[in-house]
Design goal:
Layout: H1 14-20, H2 24-27, H3 41-52, E1 54-62, E2 68-80, E3 83-92, H4 94-116, E4 122-125, E5 131-135, H5 137-143
Antiparallel strand pairs: 1-2, 2-3, 4-5
Amino acid sequence: MDKGQFGPFIQVNRTACQKLGYSKAALLQRTPLDITTLENWAHKVGPKLQTEGHALFEVQHVTRDGHKIPVEINAHLFELNGRPTVLFIARDISARKAAEQALHHSEARFRLLTENAQDIIYRIQLQPTRKFEYVSPAATAVTA
């Protein structure tokens, strides 16, 4: 599927118009490729749509004023009036992305703390094997 195969939207909902900052009429004049930052996503997603009939992927939507919104797209290929048509269901994943970033930063701070602590720090998996999952460098130095 190339850009030429994605024509203008044939229907959009109120939420899409509000989130993207377009009137319904203005958004209906655009294509899915006009509101994303990833120019070649159609080349990645298109083959999967054609072979499997559906695809799940993440892109960023760009609002009318240039703000970027991370979205998860669930795309389904079907036939409408004899023509191949793609139903795109977009879900705003801003909160999930923020939580993932916060978790990443928290893990990095924890790793920095445990790797540099002079205290012995370890974590044991109790079930089923009672094995060490993590042993800090200080603990390794004491037992070496």
